Amino acid sequence: MNENGSKKREWVKTAAIIFLTVMLILTFFSNTFMNYSLPEVATVYVQSGTITAKIRGSGVVESSDPYNVEVKESRKVAEVAVKVGDTVQKGDVLVYLEDAESEELKRLLALRDAKLKDAAARREFYETVIQNLELGEDSYLILLAQESYDVPFRTRNDEVLDDSSDTVYSYLLCAVCPMREGKPGLGYVPNENALHVKTAGRLASPPEVGFLWPAFDDRAPNLYNALYYVRKPELLHGEFISGVFGTEPPLSAPEQREAFETALTDALGAECSMELVQAVHEQLRERIELHKESKDPEPLTVTARDVGGMLRECGIEEERVSAFQDYCGQRLGQEAAVDPANLIDSRRFQIKAGEITITVKPELSGQVESRVLEGRTYLLIPAGDGVEVNGLPVELEAEPAAQA
Q1: CB 26 within 8 Å of CB 34
Q2: Mean pLDDT to the nearest integer, 217-242
Q3: Which of 222, 223, 358, 390 has the smallest number of Cβ neighbours within 10 A?
Q4: Cα 86 to chain center, whole Å?
Q5: Range 150-164 average pLDDT
Q6: SS3 for 8?
């Protein structure tokens, strides 16, 4: 009896162990399957913020209000000033049209497009220069060259890609050099081991006139603009400009300065004080200096509107500012942009009073003052130590002490 009871207990114990083992195995596989089938869940703290919805897709963006540019005249498009994707504003130039009436433009285009290989076009150009340019008794040499330049592509992010280009800039470069007799001098002859008098013959002098056409504006050729050079700013050779380009010559640098100074004095009247002229001179000089330091390849220009802003900063009333701008528009051209170096002498500041002339460095012009003493106006400059007259150090008399 005891033996049967002992066997029964052993069987129950074995069955319990088997049951527990099976349950553990089933629990393990159940958790494993659940881990593969259930999504991962992460817990975060609740925070306030903005929910942004994003929609992604592909397609073509088109304007809902397209505008077609139409030309009433039957004229060919010479150059397109913009590219696909460029942003334009009101007043921007989109295309340049050929001038059917301009024989000068046709002549330049023929030279450029033929890369100077058209002998008849070259001969016609040379004849035009000879008929419209007089350099006194000197004969001259006409140098003419043509070259092309692949303009590096610039992305919308203003990144320049040197190995990619979508514009070819083809241009003409011309220089007219006077030919003058060379001076005789001693020359060494190696074979004879001796010195002999030699005559240099006729030599080409530095260019008197030259131009680059077409100009390179906004990273594209501009057929209606050119860079023009003269050795003497006061001598523009207007007949050369009219004959080659078929347009009226601009004012020379001295004429531009005269027009600018007349506009100031006539428009401002009594308000054209020395202090105001000092302020305008200094602002223009600073622009010139900053442009030199920046090494910007684009030429520096100012307009009458720019100078008008300077006058407003000096307290000039709007009516006089408008009169100044109107006068500049009449003499220089509406919205004309000129080189500020043509308007002022950035290297010195000069004051004349009768037969007396005072010249100071521009940055020190503010130390020159005007003052009325005993009914008479004087120009005063500070005099400290180190006063010189004709290079000699001198002592200035001290103000006498007041007598009791």
Answers
A1: no
A2: 87
A3: 390
A4: 19
A5: 71
A6: helix
Q: Is 114 helix (H, G, I), strand (E, B) or coil?
A: coil
Separation CA 343–CA 269 (nearest Å)? 19
Among candidate residues 87, 80, 44, 42, the one with its CA nearest the CA of residue 63: 87
Lowest-confidence pick of 48-52, 136-140, 244-248, 320-324:
48-52
Which bin fits 253, alpha (ψ -120 to 50), beta or left (φ > 0)? alpha
140 by Cβ neighbours in 10 Å (0-12 / 13-18 / 19+) ranks as: buried
Q: Which of 194-203, 278-287, 327-336, 338-347 has the lowest mean pLDDT?
A: 194-203
Host H or E run for residue 241: helix 238-245
Neighbours of 141 (CB within 10 A): 14
178-198 burial, b if ≥16 CB within 10 A, otherwise e? beeeeeeeeeeeeeeeeeeee
Question: Which amino acid is residue 183, in one-letter code?
Answer: K
Per DSSP, which regions of 257-374 are E strands? 349-353, 356-360, 369-373
Query: Backbone phi, then psi, for 324, in 5-degree steps?
Result: -60, -45
Separation CA 239–CA 130 (nearest Å): 11
pTM confidence score: 0.57
- Angle at CA 74, nearest 5°, toward 70 and 80? 60
Task: Check residue 252 and report its DSSP letter.
Answer: P
Q: How many helices (H) and strands (E) does the chain have?
A: 8, 17
CA distance 186 to 253: 42
Confidence of residue 167 (pLDDT cuts 50, 70, 90): confident
For 151, phi and psi rounded to 5 degrees? -75, 120
For residue 349, list its beta bridge partners.
360
Residue 240: its pLDDT value, please?
93
Is residue 338 within 8 A of residue 301, CB to CB? The reply is yes
* Torsion from C-alpha of 314, 315, 320, 324, nearest 10 degrees: 20
Number of neighbours of residue 365 by Cβ within 10 angstroms = 20
Contact 237, 230 (CB under 8 A): yes
Q: Chain-wide mean pLDDT for the chain?
A: 81
- Cis bond leading into 214, ω under 30°? yes
Residue 303: other Cβ atoms inside 10 A: 17
Residue 263 belongs to what H/E stretch? helix 253-268
User: 351 to each of 9, 205, 275, how far by Cα in Å?
Assistant: 130, 37, 12
If one counts every other C-beta atom within 10 angstroms of the C-beta of residue 326, the result is: 14
